[in-house]
Amino acid sequence: MQSTRNDLIEVIARPIPDDKLSVLLTNVGEADAKLKSRLTELESPESAREKSLTWLSRVELAVLKSELFSEGSKDGVASAAEAVQIAEAALLALPANGVARSEVLRLLAEAHLRQGDARSAAAVLRESVNAIPPTSDSNPPSESIRALRIRVALTAGDLNAAEKMLQQVYADDSTAARVGVRMDLAFLRYLLARQDETAVADWLESIHERHGANAKDRADTIVAQFRLQSTDGVPRPATDDSDPRLWIADAMYFLRRGEPMQSALHFAKAAASDPVASRSVDSAIKAAALLARQSNSKAAVELLRRVSQRHPKAPESAQGLLQAATIAQAAGPTVATDSEVDAMLIQIAKQWPDSQSAFAAIRWRMEWAQRDERWLDAAKISLQFAEPHWEADAPESASVRDNALQAWATAWLRLSHPAVITAMHDELDARDDLGFIRTIHADLISLLAETTDPRWQGFQSEASEGFFRQLQSFRQGQSRAIEASPPAGLNEALAKRLELDVVATPTRRVDIGHYLLSLQSEHVAADPSEPHFPSDLQRVGWMIWAGQREMAETRITEELNQSPQQAALWCRRAANAYAVSPLKSDQKRAATWWKRLADGLPQGTASWHTATIGWLRAIAASGSPDKAHATAQLIMLTTPPTTAPDRAAYESLAN
Asked: Which pTM does this prediction carry?
């Protein structure tokens, strides 16, 4: 019973499609049948109170059921007539002085009203006043009855009488009156009867402020049903110049009733006519979503574009155009090409640079460029964020900064290092009148550039405090560790940069190896942006540098036994890791791994020559230059290389 009652109240405020409504009506019928059955069981005098409450429940259910339909509609009148019959039967069964009688009379008056019988409703209301027990609290029913009297006058067409009663309640300031939702809804019906659309729309907003979202939804439904009834059930034409807030009420009604195209058309009308940018764009977004679901994405995109340009200075318009780009991208080239979507994103960033949508549009363009492996384009786009998004007090500033750092680091990893560094200097120099740009320039130099870069010294003092300042000191050999954690998404580039530093300065290999191993332990489960960092292959090289040679070689041997097809990768990693060391013992180990790699490759191939050259260099560095000299000469005679770099390498060793 309670569940069905709650469902009725919900659907009265927010109508549902007919197929779902039929299920609810079935539930109402079953609940009423159970109540009738219970009444037959309650014949003893001791059960008089429960019998009264059961009758009251039956009447309430019947009246709530009648409220599911528009007043004056065929179904509404029929359901109200049924409620009248149940209420009259209840009055015959209830004691004359019972507590439930006055409430049943009020419900009967409501049912008569929904039948369109104002005279009967008025008569019942007069009787209901006399039926209120003197000991009960008369305030709540008093307001309910006054609201009903106003509605009786409206149903009878007596606007003057309704106005006089409303004046007694609201006086000269309707928003100041402290009344319940029933009275405010009665006032709404009065405004509808006067056909004052602006006043109706204003009062809808007042109801929302005074009673919350549920009351506003109920009010919207009353307005939509009244407007639909006034046009004999035919949706209003697009030429109608109603207040846009009423178009929104209509749209929500059709949406809840399961008529998405009618809802979309009403939202579109509201969007096109509403002078308030936030509401206009919100209506356009709702209309576009419905149109897209109905396979009409082209119309959805066009609507959003037109409405966004209708309010060119409103930040909400950027959100509308971003939604247009989203729908267009999802629909594919039949609606918009990639270049057309990109043009919308560029427009958002240029026309509304301070908006969150501009931030999202630029990040989208970055991700798009990275998807197409246009790494340098993505890095350049990362610098196009509007200035407010870079400011330290902006909530998204950290994200903007991370995007730029990650984009340039990714480009540096994927492309020629010198070319990326040159492009980075050019792009950031063009914006260096902004302090935060100079800071990120300094941070990127610390992370990616050689310490011999001409910009290194000039930007040292402008790097961010914390990690980047510590990174500078570490890379210059002024410290042996970095205490601060690197920003998210930079570990791969950081590791690559430090590995290159080891090649340039082998004496730093121990400190760098230790640091990279500590970086790996901090990274676990801490940075989801780099789920595969570091690989086991990377770790064994760092272990060799850090002096953990036995552990590294044990790990390599395990991998060679488990995955012999990956032998070349592991042998090359071990050989390179040992080869940077100036120690002869490390060079002997490098020679061992280069030789093992070469033995596993087809003789005479480019990869075989690379491994062999590494082997010979390691032999020479380990203290056996004569052996390297003789072997190089022999290879030049028996298996000469085909490339100039390889020939030059052998000749250098042979000489």
From this structure: 0.78
Task: Pull the structure tokens for residue 332.
Answer: 């594919």
C-alpha to C-alpha distance for 221 and 207, rounded to whole angstroms: 13
Please tell me the predicted confidence (pLDDT) of residue 49. 87
What pLDDT, on the 0 to 100 scale, is given for residue 135? 47
- Within 8 A by CB and 6+ apart from 266, the residues are 235, 247, 248, 250, 251, 254
Q: Is a pLDDT exceeding 80 seen at residue 338?
A: yes
Say if residues 487 and 470 touch (Cβ distance below 8 Å): no
Inter-residue contact 379 to 420 (CB < 8 Å): yes
- Matching residue, tokens 């640091």: 515
Contact 373, 365 (CB under 8 A): no
| Residue carrying structure tokens 């439930």 | 100
Identity at 482, one-letter amino acid code:
I
Q: Are 245 and 205 in contact, with CB atoms under 8 Å apart? A: yes
pLDDT value of position 345: 96
Tokens of 121: 């409703």
Provide the pLDDT for residue 139: 45
Helices (H), 332-355: 338-351
**∠ CA 620-622-627, rounded to 5°:** 40
pLDDT at 530: 73
Contact indicator for 189, 157 with CB cutoff of 8 Å: no
The span from the CA of 32 to the CA of 57, in Å, is: 9
Distance CA 149, CA 126 (A): 10
